[in-house]
């Protein structure tokens, strides 16, 4: 029987199509395989026989005994198991079981897919599992967001010559958005705005951000739903994306790839993905050991970007675009996948 199915987590339901990384990977893999969620296969032997591989993304919090039993069954029947090592630990993780699940996955799977070469230093049980690791670039988002007719600058009374620092994405604590707000307030830059736009991740956290932004005429907090159809308009309104992630959990960043894909550069801590491209000289990266230093370093980088002016950071954004166009395209991703049997 021909093995022409790939089971993937999370599966290709409509809810997961809003995750552009997953949507891109569903589209790419479906060029050669029939794609379905692992829940569609379950423990059905006839379906398992048609399945070539299982690819697991962000499954650590959902890895219960039933799912583990099914994965063991798949492997016993010759199905290859691929785990994508996205984060050092799950974001906002408060359960030791999730960290233990990462160790179990690393030990159990056939291959560990890395989206940054430097992330191997955070691999669970590294000495045991390092030979399973393979670097495959994070697929870019070039032309994946449709052109949007909205003018975000005009809607928010931002002048065309004003420098806009942005954070765009789901508003969640691990992203340290309050640090951007504090840094921007302390800098008191002339002719500059801070735009924070994204869906509410945790309501209590967003309320905290609202309090921090209250009365600040140069800070715009837009916590409404942003569809994929509107994302291009927010990126176009931005001069630079500011991403002061927690290094405790963060390792890769889809927001970085998104920014580069739309000719924008970023300010970001030296997470694994940033370390990979630091020498390319088109990002503003920094290191820190605690929150106080995080604020200090991000202020330095925000000021450095501001002093380059809009045209200067725009030139870096173009370099970033050319980099992901060359190194993170579908052909490079397929080349990596074929190298591990897909």
TrEMBL record:
Keywords: Transferase. GO terms for biological process: lipopolysaccharide biosynthetic process. InterPro entries: Glyco_trans_1. The keyword Lyase does not apply. Signal peptide: none annotated. Residues 151-246 form the Glycosyl transferase family domain. It holds the Pfam family Glycos_transf_1. This is Glycosyltransferase.
């Amino acid at each position: 029987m021909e093995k022409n199915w790939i089971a993937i987590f999370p599966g290709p339901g409509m809810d997961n199509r809003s995750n552009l990384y997953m949507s891109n990977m569903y589209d790419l893999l479906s060029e050669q395989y029939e794609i379905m969620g692992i829940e569609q296969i379950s423990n059905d032997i006839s379906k398992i026989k048609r399945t070539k591989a299982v690819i697991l993304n962000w499954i650590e919090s959902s890895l219960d005994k039933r799912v583990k039993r099914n994965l063991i069954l798949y492997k016993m029947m010759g199905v290859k198991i691929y785990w994508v090592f996205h984060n050092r630990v799950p974001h906002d993780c408060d359960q030791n079981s999730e960290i233990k699940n990462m160790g179990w996955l690393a030990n159990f799977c056939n291959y560990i897919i890395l989206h940054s070469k430097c992330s191997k230093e955070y691999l669970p049980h590294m000495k045991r599992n390092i030979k399973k690791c393979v670097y495959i670039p994070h697929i870019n988002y070039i032309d994946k967001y449709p052109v949007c007719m909205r003018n975000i600058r005009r809607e928010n009374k931002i002048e065309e010559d004003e420098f806009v620092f942005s954070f765009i994405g789901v508003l969640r604590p691990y992203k340290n958005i309050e640090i951007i707000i504090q840094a921007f307030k302390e800098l008191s830059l002339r002719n500059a705005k801070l735009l924070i736009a994204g869906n509410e991740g945790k309501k209590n956290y967003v309320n905290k951000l609202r309090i921090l932004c209250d009365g600040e005429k140069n800070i715009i907090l837009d916590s409404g739903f942003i569809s994929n159809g509107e994302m291009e308009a927010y990126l176009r309104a931005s001069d630079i994306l500011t991403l002061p992630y927690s290094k405790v959990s963060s390792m890769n960043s889809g927001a970085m790839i998104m920014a580069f894909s739309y000719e924008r550069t970023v300010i970001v801590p030296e997470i694994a993905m940033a370390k990979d491209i630091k020498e390319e000289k088109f990002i503003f990266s920094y290191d820190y050991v605690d929150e106080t230093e995080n604020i200090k370093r991000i202020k330095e980088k925000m000021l450095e970007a501001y002093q380059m002016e809009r045209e200067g950071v725009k030139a870096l954004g173009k370099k970033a675009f050319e980099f992901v166009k060359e190194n993170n395209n579908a052909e490079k991703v397929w080349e990596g996948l074929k190298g591990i049997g897909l």
